[in-house]
Amino acid sequence: MNKKNLSKLTLILSGIKNRFLENEAIFKEITITYTSGLKHFTGKAVYSNDNKLAFNFNGKTDLFTIDSLIEAIINNCVSYDSLELIYSERGTNVLVTADDKNVNIKNINIIEKSSEKDKTSTLLNRNYLIKIGPANDLLKAIDIMTKDNKVKNDKIRKYNQIDHFIELIDSTLDSISRNKHITILDCGCGKSYLTFALNYYLTEVKKVKCSFIGIDISEAVIQKSKSIAQTLGYRNMDFYAMDIHDYKPDRKINMVISLHACDTATDMALALGIRLESDAIIAVPCCHKEMLSQYSYEPFKDILKHGIFKARFADVLTDGMRSLMLEAKGYDVTPVEYISPLETPKNLLIRAIKKTDSNEEAMDSYMKLMADLNVYPALYDFLQTY
């Protein structure tokens, strides 16, 4: 390759280096093919566990920094007629071609089409956001798909719930992700299946720069989440086995999510989101026990003497007061039905977006309800304590 085009290639590859440094967490690989006459020589660089790039070329694997790899690529070009380099990130490829006539670069969006027999729409007659084909690696890692690319019959409902969750918060993601890197904190993350799906959707479908933090008290589920992240190559995720109360972020948290955290664990997550002034808070509450043993309301005594009515009213009261506290703290709150009540009566999703510093009228209403109902909600207690 002539010196003039080598100089052009050097400039382009310096841009590739900068892209790597900026997007290192979503880097996948660099594939290089040199051509000499009719012969082709291919090498591949992948991310190594020691934060370097393992480059296999001509039967030998060496470790490089991004700077030294770019230098090696340029040096090798002197011995060949042309170069084709594909720089791969999650969801996007960059193609660089160079020879004695031209040096070119272009972005290639990765679009994988599912086969006719695997079309997602055949499952539940809906257009999925997490599509079979492009998302196969994810779906296998979270145990929804078999090795031969078939959604498991007993996982269709789970697949539907994960996809519907992302559909419900899609507009919220848009409102907080404009022109910035966002960080999402999952409180009581468990095996993090929804978070992995959200990571895929943001990174590879919406092309949003993002990072994720998962917290759970169980060391076993944290290790499982770490293992899945490593399998998928999702390096923009960190997981910690710890109590929510002990978590202190080292960066701005843009969204706090709490999915099926039992009883007052949901309140812990909401309190943390409020305290961190998170741009958005998403909660799917699970069981409700605390308020049931506390509240009383004289005008309803002849109705609430029936246990089933008292329990159901406790559910509404618990999530209603959670929503009111979020409003008092300046959030615009929308409770929506998450999944069909035929599947579970615990089917509520609370979606909150930070709009103002506070709402005094909502706080006055909250305090009056505490007095009228003789309750002291965990969310209020956590906010006072922490």
From TrEMBL:
Which GO cellular component term is one of those annotated? cytoplasm
GO MF terms, alphabetically ordered? methyltransferase activity
GO BP annotation list: methylation
Q: Where is the Methyltransferase domain?
A: 157-293
Keyword Lipid metabolism present in the record's keywords: the answer is no
Question: InterPro entries annotated for this entry?
Answer: Methyltranfer_dom, SAM-dependent_MTases_sf
Keywords recorded for this protein, A-Z:
Methyltransferase, Transferase
Identification of the protein by name: Predicted SAM dependent methyltransferase
- The species is Clostridium acetobutylicum (strain ATCC 824 / DSM 792 / JCM 1419 / IAM 19013 / LMG 5710 / NBRC 13948 / NRRL B-527 / VKM B-1787 / 2291 / W)
